[in-house]
Amino acid sequence: MKSKVWLTVFLCCIYLTGGWGQTSPSTEGQAFLCSFMKNGYENNGEYLGQPLKCQIFASAKEANTTVTVSNPRTGYSVSQTIGTANSSVSFDIPKEHAYCTASGTALDRCLLISSGDKPISLYCANFAYQSFDAANVLPYDALTGDYIVQCIPSSSYSSSDSKTAFLICALRNSTKVEITPSCNTDNGWYAGQKYEITLHQFQCYMVCSNTYGIDGDLSGTIVHSTSCQKPIAVFNGDLITAIPKDNNSARDHIFEQAMPTAYWGKQFVLTGTNGNTLGDVIRVTALEDGTEFYLDNQPKTVQYNGQTMMALDKGQTGEFELPDNTPAAFFTANNNVAVYLYQKTGFAGGNGGDPSMVWISPIEQQVMDITFSTYAFYVSSGSKYHYVNIVCRTQDKNYIKLDNINIGSQFTAVPGNPLYSYARPLVTEGTHRLQCTQGDGFTAHVYGYGVPLGYAYMVGSSMKPGTFLVNGTDVKDLPADFAICENDPIVFINDSRYEYDSLQWIIDKISPLRRVYDTISDILEYDFAARGEGAGLYKVMRVIHAASSDCYDPDAPPDTTTMLLNVVPLYAMHDTITICPKGLPYTYHGQSIASAGSYTVPLKSRYGCDSTYYLQLSVQPLGDTMDITICERDSFFFVDRWLKDPGTYIDTVTAQYGCDSVLLLHLSVRDADTAMFVDICAGDSLLFGGDYLKTSGIYRDTVLSRWGCLAEVVLTLAVHEHYARHVDDYVCAENYYLAHGFKIPPYHTAGTYHDTLFLKTVYGCDSVISLTLQVPEVTVSIVASTSDFCDEGKVILAAFTPNTQIQWNTGDTVPEIEVTKSGTYIVTVSDYGCMAQDIEIIEKCPSVVVFPNAITPGKLDGINDSFFLANTDEVKTFEIAIYDRFGTMVFYSRDPYFRWDGKVKGKYVQGVYNYLVKYITHEGIDHKITGSLTVIR
Q1: Fewest CB atoms less than 10 Å from the CB: which of 121, 320, 575, 834?
Q2: In the predicted model, what is the mean pLDDT of the chain?
Q3: What is the 3-state secondary structure (H, E, C) of 824-845?
Q4: What sign does the CA torsion over 849, 854, 857, 861 have?
Q5: Cβ pair 742, 755 in contact under 8 A
Q6: Cα 97 from Cα 76, distance rounded (Å)
Q7: pLDDT at position 357, please?
């Protein structure tokens, strides 16, 4: 069976040229990927006329926002317009376009949701009768290629869907994804066994555990996209479970979109579920070995696989409970972690509440403005309730608005860290808007419950990948009037959450504006006094360039964090003062000075910085000397006359303090003719003397000199030509061409291109280059001679290609091969370093089971002594029941290796007996068969 790879022209334009542009990651955006995992209650309401529903909710702050939901692989597409600002629309998506039931198989079930150039917030919900949960959906430009899955061990009741699971959606064609499961999967992979899959654009892939409980916990599974520029979306949760796992009273499907590891954090405010009577479960997944935890600043242990742990290693998930009498707590870790809150089964007592899960954002991932929706879900009795839990800095609480109403009075300080406050207001059913009008913003999650349902999802996040520390303190926690003395050293430390190519510290002095320091280092120790920069207001920027993860866009703007730093002067003031003799004693900053000389007065500023005043005191002599320079056309007034000629002049005047002084004047006269030498490029011009000059030559003009004198300026202008050259080169069709200053997108055509390089000549003129580009044709397609593999037992696969270098994954290098086994066959062709592939999947032939139709028990002759399954290797799960002619069950087993010896209650019987068999093959196909058995005595 073969699956063809395709891509529409429209999607090429969007995804291969950057369609919606590059912005800082957040949960708002213009394009999203989404799909739905299997719901363990999917058939629960079919007989009541309440089938499973997959829903998309989009909310927008701008009016007239058109939202389109499509599956480009199936051709499904539908649009709605959000006509009013701060409102939403919902979509019911047919299951065949977005709902995944098969594990371990690439499916065409991934949705593309787009909103043009207007941002939206997107949420998805999975409905079944008595089952409901929701999740926030990330925009595609916030996706990366690195994830670690978190779920919760499923409850151990009798259901084949009691499993943990995760789902991967691909944004690009030929996306290769490495999966390292943390437990055995139901598609045959073992814990710790890394394997790779390839997904094409808008395909998805679901993985389920092969059992329930701790042994079936997929938490810690590593999912990594190895393809350059091919990010993925990951959703994780449980197909159906109760919380805790040994509670079988009420179960639900729970899921949430997994956050890329780049957005994990170290500091969190945990807020419990309002109306909770049982407490919540907190599960924490570590990103690094030796991760330790603190709750309200005290060391916190966690439970990991039934053991009490002080620390976790990478990928391990621990849990602890947040009691109902602890509405909020401050939680920290020494390394980055992912934190999810799980609501328990029946957590709200008589008000119901099936389990839900929700991502808890790190406290630094605040947003300023977001719209979100509560859900109209079914309750069998009683009322339903909706709440939103909000966390912000305490200093910002009076700037928080819910639906344009200030709710600052509803906030309470977090006991473990009063710098933060929280609120848990009740909200109505419908669309709402949260705002922070000034300050750092907020984090929030919304949830609802009734009898018997519940849901929860994160409202929104800025997904800032870290910040930097100033003398050990997070820059955002510094006081508004933070300052240092100019002789105090300061240390800046990068606290980013992801790998990067380079980190740059930039320090600019604001007045006068100039670049002070520019370096690349993780830690910057800076001493303003030692560097001779002095006091003033500085702008300090931490700039992280092009993260090295394959799934970051190198053209995206760098991650920049900025702070203003006030460097307070030491006030080393130097005063030179001259007085008459009768001005003694002289008072200087409270100190009485009796004679001329040098004096030092120590003081302290309001910032505690040392300040020193240095005084050079002189007693005025009987005479004074003046050195004056004027322009040759000007004059200088000396005592009682105007002077124009250079020379020395003497006069007597009454000086300050009534002292007679003899004045001695040295007068100089200055002219100011100036010569200028300027280079420009051909095609440019220079404004000089009111004219734009374009040719080389010598030009003259009369201007005011820097002395204020009229002067003749002689300009020597040189005009230089541009530099040009030609290059011949080639590139593979699917690759960017990024050489010689060109950036040509994939799937371009051969031809000649022209561009201006970033390089300049010594005179600053452009270097122009022309490129003749060749694109080798490299294609291949597998043609099968017959599809009747199961009847023939073999098939001929032929590679149709114009290229001669052929390589099959079987090791063959010929155009045709004969295969006799099921499996995946890949052919690769290459030419000029370019490659193309095609895939042929030969599926395994269906399995059947075989039983005897008669037995002769009791004879003990080794022939037909018992009733059993002849081919046990064909089944994965198995169940059989045998009934007598009155409908009474006389034998039952779930073991495929069973044997019935023809005894009922210890005695041999005879006659005709009926049996019912249910089994699932290794292909995941459910079977149900009945038959009859004759017992002969």
Answers
A1: 575
A2: 84
A3: EEEEEEEECCEEEEEEEEECCC
A4: negative
A5: yes
A6: 7
A7: 94
> Which of 134-138, 351-355, 788-792, 817-821 is least confident?
788-792
pLDDT band at 351 (very low <50, low <70, confident <90, very high): low
Average pLDDT over residues 876-882: 91
Task: Give how far Cα 797 sits from Cα of 786, 794, 810, 826, 831, Å.
Answer: 9, 10, 12, 10, 21
The string of pLDDT tens digits covering residues 420-437 is 999 999 999 989 999 999
CA nearest neighbour of 341 among 456, 227, 242: 456
Cβ-based neighbour number of residue 565 at 10 Å: 21
Q: Between the CA of residue 679 and those of 609, 686, 697, 759, 761, what are the distances in Å?
A: 49, 10, 11, 17, 12
Query: Largest alpha-carbon pair distance within the chain?
Result: 152
* pLDDT 10s digits, 623-640: 677 888 888 777 888 878
The answer to whether 506 touches 515, Cβ cutoff 8 Å, is: yes
DSSP code of residue 97: H
Whether pTM > 0.70 for this model: the answer is: no
- Contact, 486 vs 529, CB < 8 A? yes
Pick from 148, 99, 87: nearest CA to 125: 99
Residue type, 218: L
Mean pLDDT for 713-719 is 85
- Kindly list the distances between the CA atom of residue 765 and the CA atoms of 677, 738, 741, 756, in Å, as whole numbers in the listed order: 17, 22, 16, 10
| DSSP-derived secondary structure letter, 561 | E
Three-class secondary structure of residue 410 per DSSP: helix
In this structure, are residues 233 and 113 in contact, taking their beta carbons and an 8 Å threshold? Answer: no
Cβ 818 vs Cβ 789: under 8 Å: no
The residue ranges of DSSP E strands in 258-404, in sequence order, are 265-271, 280-286, 291-295, 298-299, 302-304, 307-309, 311-312, 317-322, 328-343, 356-359, 369-373, 381-393, 400-402
**Chain centroid offset of residue 240 CA:** 28
List, for residues 495-513, the tens digit of each pLDDT value: 765 556 678 888 888 877 7
In terms of phi and psi (left: phi > 0; alpha: psi -120 to 50; beta: otherwise), the region of 467 is beta
DSSP states of 611-623: EEEEEEEEE--SE
